């Protein structure tokens, strides 16, 4: 592939070490209404928009979705104060930016939730555009990627989607965008491999190395 012009990142589980707290907050909210929920089930839907999460986890009680979301949001905000970027993310993003690469975020978070963590990490200025599921269609529909491409004026084949879930990679595959999986987040390697990523990396350091090589045109996928 040609040297990429744009790299799009998922947030939770890809850049931000928040999967454990998301799971804990979902289980707390479910408990408030006596709804059974395992860690595995809660983790499996990370990456979807919140309405889609509710439908996937609690289809039997649609009348409780809004109240469950309120409890989830309050618990997450109260208990996620120590969540942060994975080690090496700041260096990765600043390095890519210094090389003239456009950066973007495509996340299942709400706009309010994304803005909160962008403020926390002081990273608004690093990204050319960010898209949250609450303002477009949820993954794996490619709408948010299409909107990012339109704003950045980059063609899909000249961009890369980086994510830790099947939703991220399927979204990119739906518009023939090259994609990279990360194995340290939500979904296992065998799940990510189904969506034919360029590679699957096991750490931020490995991701940094791979993207650096790709930008130097030492990898030909």
Automatic annotation (TrEMBL):
The keyword Metal-binding does not apply. GO terms for cellular component: cytosol. Keywords: Hydrolase. InterPro entries: HAD-like_hydrolase_sf, HAD-like_sf, HAD-SF_hydro_IA, HAD-SF_hydro_IIIA, HAD_2, HAD_sf, PGP-like_dom2. Its EC number is 3.1.3.18. SUPFAM superfamilies: HAD-like. Pfam families: HAD_2. The keyword DNA-binding does not apply. GO terms for molecular function: phosphoglycolate phosphatase activity. Transmembrane segments: none annotated. One of its GO terms (biological process) is DNA repair. This is Putative phosphoglycolate phosphatase protein. The lineage of its organism: Bacteria, Pseudomonadati, Pseudomonadota, Gammaproteobacteria, Moraxellales.
